[in-house]
Amino acid sequence: MPLGGGGATRWNDRRVIGYQCAAPDPDGILRTLDLTKPAYDPSRNAFDGWSACNLRLSRDRIRMKV
Q1: Edge-to-edge strands of the sheet including 44-57?
Q2: How far apart, in whole angstroms, are the C-alpha atoms of residue 38 and residue 40?
Q3: Torsion of CA 18, 19, 25, 28, to 10 degrees
Q4: Burial (0-12, 13-18, 19+ Cβ within 10 Å), 55
Q5: I want to staple 4 with a disulfide (CB 3.0 to 4.6 A). Which of 8, 48, 52, 66 is the partner?
Q6: Torsions phi, psi of 27, nearest 5?
Q7: Torsion angle of alpha carbons 61, 4, 44, 18, nearest 10°?
Q8: 39: nearest Cα among 2, 3, 14
Q9: Distance between CA atoms of 61 and 23, rounded to whole angstroms?
Q10: What is the pLDDT of residues 42-56, one digit of tens each?
Q11: C-alpha span between 8 and 48 (Å, rounded)
Q12: What is the pTM of this model?
């Protein structure tokens, strides 16, 4: 019964997801963004893992990986 396994890791640096609003117009509505004040998404790490097992069924006529 052969076994297998593996994994991976990913890293994403922080990135700009938008900009903060500038001062509102005289009527109180925000219509512009302040491009000197970006809003950032935090950096992220992700880890994945997997394992597998090869099976043979019905006197080696059927092969299956789980």
Answers
A1: 3-12, 44-57, 62-65
A2: 6
A3: 60
A4: exposed
A5: 52
A6: -85, 0
A7: -20
A8: 14
A9: 73
A10: 999 999 999 999 998
A11: 5
A12: 0.47
